What does this fold into?
Amino acid sequence: MIQDLVVYLLFIGYAIGFMLGLATLFTWVERKQSAVMADRIGANRCYIRIPFTNVRLVAWGLFHGIADGAKMLLKENFTPHTYDRFCYNLAPWLAAAPVLLVFSVVPFGGTVTPGRLLPQLHAFFGERSYLMQVASLDAGILVVLSLSGIGILGTMLAGWSSNNKFSLLGAARAASQMISYEVAMGLALISLVVTYGTLDLNGMVTRQSGLLLGFLPAWGIFMQPLAFLLFLTAAIAENKRVPFDLPECESELVAGYFTEYTAMKMGLFMLSEFIEIVVVSALLVTMFLGGYNLPYLSAGGFVLPGGASWALPHLAVVLLQVGTFAAKVILAGCFQIQVRWSLPRFRYDQLMGFGWKFLLPLAALNLVVTACVRWWTL
It folds into this structure.
């Protein structure tokens, strides 16, 4: 139906705009937050001048992201003398596209009925309702794991096709790191699946809409605190950020697996890293922080303890849910950036040992305990 096509095109446009917009914002947060921690001013030189005046709009350095994008697009594209042309050009897209696709199974809001948003839309949409999610799949967790594993292929291709020893070493590190931490992440997610009894991400959000002990939100972080820490640690490692940035490791490998990339190809690798911050934050929010749920907010408005209620129009409820999800994602992303500027880098043997000797046994133990508790309470 044409109505479904219009709605899902809007969802896709919103998802892409949300990821790209927040990724650009996080490039500014990375600079500004590190500056605040080091007692510096940070990015504040880029500005937009109002025409025919001397008024410069600095906006705390927010225009630096626009300047970075323009610089990447306009720079000359240099290539190595000897390289595999096809794989070299394919690698940046293979690294960026899977990250974008993962967000398709993440619900960024509840159920929306377009005909109830505005009276003018009722004639076109009728009473059709849509879950605010690009692809509503029952096996959402499996899609996340399968798509996230594809991105490493772009990293490996970039390192191999560049014909550079630093790039190849960075790609080898990335591959071994992904294998090490993907196992712990998978076991943490299985523990969550056992707890919720579903692979559907929206089903997980629905199960987090209640209260624990009458006052505590039934979020995954309170039901599975160890799985939360395991997933967050493994996700940062998958994103190759400090303290797990051995595949890039500027002080040792120049720029790691994308050393030989310039212009927008290098920009794609760097942008995909910040998009992955957004996606990891979205998954963290969806599975452990209640998703788009706001405490005491229901489809009809707020239902407060003691029986009091506050009815809200459908448009207000939709905006609150979407805004709640976005705010949680921004806070989770800023926390990841805070970690990047707070911890020192591991040595490579420490990195591998931490994954295999610490995270993996903890994840396995958490899964066994979760299965036993689940069996006991059924």
User: Anything to note?
Assistant: The chain has 14 helices and nine strands. Residues 61 and 198 are 44 Å apart (CA to CA). The longest strand covers residues 301-303. The beta strands are 48-49, 56-57, 111-112, 130-131, 211-212, 216-217, 297-298, 301-303, 309-311.
